[in-house]
Amino acid sequence: MGCRHSRLSCCKPPKKVEKERELELQEKLDEQRRALEGEHEAALQVLRASYEQEKEALTHSFQEAKASLQETIDGLTSQLGAFQAKMKRVEESILSRDYKKHIQDYGSPSQFWEQELESLHFVIEMKNERIHELDKRLILMETVKEKNLMLEEKITTLQQENEDLLVRGRNQAVVSR
After folding, report:
1. What percent of the residues of the chain are helix, what percent strand, and what percent coil, each to the nearest 5?
2. Contact 62/152 with Cβ under 8 angstroms?
3. pLDDT, average across residues 117-128
């Protein structure tokens, strides 16, 4: 069964050569597979590290902004409540009742009451301006809050993408084995 040459020992039988070749190819393929798996794992580790860093940075900045905004909103809310309470007390104040009684008793207000009324109007106008400023700040805070919500959505999306990458990486590792 050997070769067609006159000497029997000059060539290896074909099946043996094929098996050796197959083994060599299998070894080369295994070596290439291991190299690709190593590269894949290294790239995956870099992606994971990058993702984690970005996620931590976004989460940290979001938490800081959220805490700051909540603090500002709480402060503005309490200021607005206090101001509204003061406005109600001014409206119901003794001065207001005395002024109305004076008008009923004597007709037109005296010079003193006119000055008091002007003073009250001035204070109310100042408070109204402050309310408008607080409203503007509240609107700004709501805008920042919306941006924070968008950042939360981005974090969720990045987490989902990371999960997808992890699954794809595992699937590639399984397929390459």
Report:
1. 90, 0, 10
2. yes
3. 86
Per-domain residue ranges of the chain: 14-176
Q: What is the C-alpha separation between 104 and 176, in angstroms, rounded? A: 97
Supply the Cα-derived Rg of the chain in whole angstroms. 41
Here the tokens at position 175 are 């397929």
Dist CA 98 CA 89 (whole Å)? 14
Predicted structure pTM score: 0.37
Residue-wise pLDDT for 62-120, tens only, equals 899 889 888 988 888 888 888 888 777 766 666 666 767 767 776 665 677 678 888 88
Q: Which pLDDT tens digit goes with each residue over 42-57?
A: 988 998 898 889 889 8
| Cβ within 8 Å of residue 123, ≥6 positions away | 90
> How far is it between the farthest Cα atoms of the chain?
147
Please check whether residue 176 is in contact with residue 36, taking contact to mean a CB–CB distance below 8 angstroms: yes
Residue 52 tokens read as: 């984690």
